[in-house]
Amino acid sequence: MLTAHPTRLGRWFWGTFSSLGIRWAFHKMVVEDMPAVDPQRSLLLVGNHISWWDGFWPLYLNRRYWHKHYHVMMLETQLRARPFMRQGGAFSILPGSRTVLDSLAYAGQLLEDPTKLVLMFPQGKIHSLYQPEIRFARGAERLWQPERSQLFFLAAFPEYLSHPRPTLFYYVEEANADQALAEGYAAFYRRVRARQAARTS
């Protein structure tokens, strides 16, 4: 697996890229239900994987609201093609290989530090926005330990509406400690998908 090698330059570059890129590519970003961050715990983010932009939206929010050291789990094939992302906090996972356990263990080590944030997409790859259910790959549940980490569920819904650039509707919700990760995310996703359909109908 490829570990993260964050540098000041890398964090500045990708943070600036996310801010400028979102302003250029989107009409606006509407964030729903921003929960408070516990400075005594690390932050695990779990989101739907619908586009190339998925890692940049939480990075933008982290710079504005959460102020943690950002890390994101990426497919190894993609990270090898973009190695400079390691300097922004990216590390790899290779589904179907023995190194999956190494990647999960590495993510767990990061989450031991309350100053850090780990973003993951348990679907494993990009899927259509119009999928009614989110299916998780194995292993994601191992990462969440409520005593050390907060868990935020994320869901992104870009909508063009009456503008040439899309508006990004972004839902954020803190998970309950008694929820299983996959079941909790599925319930969250159904709720916010229904809310999004209602607000744009």
What is the secondary structure topology, with strand pairs?
Layout: H1 8-25, E1 28-32, E2 42-47, H2 56-66, E3 69-75, H3 76-81, E4 90-93, H4 99-111, E5 116-120, E6 149-159, E7 167-174, H5 181-199
Parallel strand pairs: 1-7, 2-5, 2-6, 3-4, 3-5
Antiparallel strand pairs: 6-7
What does this structure look like?
The protein is built from five helices and seven strands, in the order αββαβαβαβββα. It is an alpha/beta fold. Strands 1-7-6-2-5-3-4 form a seven-stranded mixed sheet, sandwiched between helices. Strand 3, helix 3 and strand 4 form a beta-alpha-beta unit. The longest helix is centred in the last third of the chain and has 19 residues, at 181-199. The model has no long low-confidence stretch (mean pLDDT 91).
Relevant terms:
alpha/beta, seven-stranded mixed β-sheet
CA distance, first residue to last residue:
44 Å
Low-confidence stretches: none
> Can you give the helix content as a percent range?
25-40%
- Please count the helical segments: 5
**What is the ordering of alpha helices and beta strands?**
HEEHEHEHEEEH
Strand content: 15-25%
Rg measurement, Å: 16 Å
Major sheet strand order:
1-7-6-2-5-3-4
The count of domains is: 1
Q: Brief overview, please?
A:
It contains 5 helices and 7 strands, in the order H-E-E-H-E-H-E-H-E-E-E-H. The protein has 201 residues and is an alpha/beta fold.
